Automatic annotation (TrEMBL):
N-terminal signal peptide: 1-26
Entry keywords, A to Z: Signal
Full protein name: Alginate export domain-containing protein
Length: 426
């Protein structure tokens, strides 16, 4: 499991041991320290499990591409808090795919330790915090960096693994905040017989003058030693809240080397969200995405947007088009418009519809690519349970018919989740 990272993991384990010894010798006993609500002093735990069922017809807009499969995963976390939020944590995930999914995974099991870290959220009340080890990490809104592991064995649609191995730090002082990180590049992104090696590093500096208003400037660089790829990205992200309105966006400028060619991709998103009041608590979101495509007239430069390690946090964030984003891929050489309307007809029940229009940025012929329409129902249930049902329908346009096929795509997914956490007796 740690074949390619034994030396790195040894460093993390040593850091955990040193930190535990330091905390044990602290002048103020952990039991008397001010507790952090998220991780209390002492031993606590968190458990979760998800089971989902998937039906897809006409994947990649091609006939006879129908898939029916089920997925499931269970995750366990154990925390030992030293007080004031400082803690060590360890945990793992077991996964299962039953049937054959549209990635070609068939009847697969998997399991992995996906968390082993020391977390100090606010060292000495200084506003500075850090995490060392195998950890979850998201830079900003996750548009660039959020998923450090490429799921390839089981439960691929649910994306249960997203960890990074390395060090991250954060600092907050008044309205200013900063984040920095240095991680190993996971070998899961390369050929299992010839895994990738290298590092991923970067950070951002931000200003939050008031709640709901933020501006941040970030930088990310990757160095893959075996492939001579050294891409980097500069990102500007911001949001502003005025009453029921939220306006935001992020713009990414890419450079560096992709081996034999130079990278000069561009990408970003912009959105306007309105949230109403009343019985149904309506929300409306209009969002646009733009990912540059490679200009075929240039041989020494790649203008296509190179997706980084974005994560999933909500429908079409950031797998744009939850049917097409997982199959034909929509995060490069694509311009997308999204409209979403949401309602809450009763407490604990949510309903949303999403409409997408996709267009190719660089094509030899026509640029219209596809439409996708989604409908989602979320339902909270007693005893830590929740469920959702999602349906999607996608229609190919001229560019998609040339690249893939003319068959309409459809999917129907349903999932049931359970979460539970608690504190063990001292």
């Amino acid at each position: 499991m740690f074949t390619h990272k034994q030396r790195s993991i040894a460093v993390w384990l040593l850091a955990l041991l040193l930190a535990a010894a330091t905390a044990a010798r602290a002048d103020e006993p952990a039991a008397e320290a001010e507790e952090d609500d998220s991780v209390p002093a002492g031993l606590s735990y968190a458990l979760e499990a998800t089971a989902s069922n998937h039906h897809v017809k006409g994947a990649w807009f091609t006939p006879d591409s129908s898939f029916d499969w089920s997925e499931g995963f269970a995750r366990a976390r154990v925390f030992y808090g030293f007080g004031k939020g400082a803690h060590v944590t360890a945990g793992g995930v077991v996964m299962r795919t039953q049937g054959t999914d549209y990635f070609g995974t068939q009847d697969e099991n998997d399991g992995l330790l996906d968390q082993l870290a020391l977390v100090v959220p606010n060292a000495g009340e200084s506003g500075f915090g850090f995490t060392i080890g195998r950890q979850s990490f998201t830079l900003g809104d996750g548009f660039l960096i959020a998923d450090g592991y490429y799921d390839h064995r089981a439960a691929l649609w649910n994306i249960p693994l997203a960890f990074y191995d390395g060090v991250s730090a954060n600092w907050t002082q008044g309205p200013h905040h900063a984040t920095a990180f240095a991680f190993d590049v996971s070998p899961s992104f390369g050929d299992p017989g010839d895994p990738l090696e290298g590092f991923l590093a970067g950070g951002e500096f931000g200003w939050t003058p008031s709640e709901g208003n933020d501006l941040a400037l970030g930088f990310v660089r990757m160095d893959e030693t075996k492939t001579d790829r050294t891409p980097f990205a500069v990102t500007v992200r911001g949001s502003s809240t005025r009453g029921p309105w939220v306006i935001g966006g992020e713009f990414v400028f890419e450079g560096g080397s992709m081996g034999d060619v130079d990278l000069s991709g561009r990408g970003g998103h912009a959105e306007v969200v309105w949230t109403g009041e009343g019985r149904f608590k309506p929300t409306v979101k209009l969002q646009g995405f733009w990912f540059s495509g490679d200009d075929p007239a240039t041989d020494t430069e790649d203008e296509g947007y190179d997706p980084w390690q974005f994560g999933w946090s909500d429908w079409s964030n950031w797998y744009v088009g939850d049917l097409l984003g997982s199959t034909v891929l929509t995060s490069s050489n694509m311009r997308t418009l999204l409209a979403q309307v949401g309602l809450t007809p009763r407490e604990g029940t949510g309903f949303r519809v999403l409409a997408h229009r996709f267009d190719r940025v660089e094509t030899e012929g026509d640029s219209p690519f596809a439409y996708e329409f989604d409908a989602v129902v979320d339902q909270e249930l007693p005893h830590g349970l929740s469920a959702w049902v999602m349906g999607a329908y996608a229609m190919p346009l001229d560019a998609a018919k040339v690249e893939f096929g003319s068959e309409n795509s459809m999917q129907l997914f349903a999932a049931l989740s359970w979460k539970f956490s608690g504190k063990l007796a001292q």
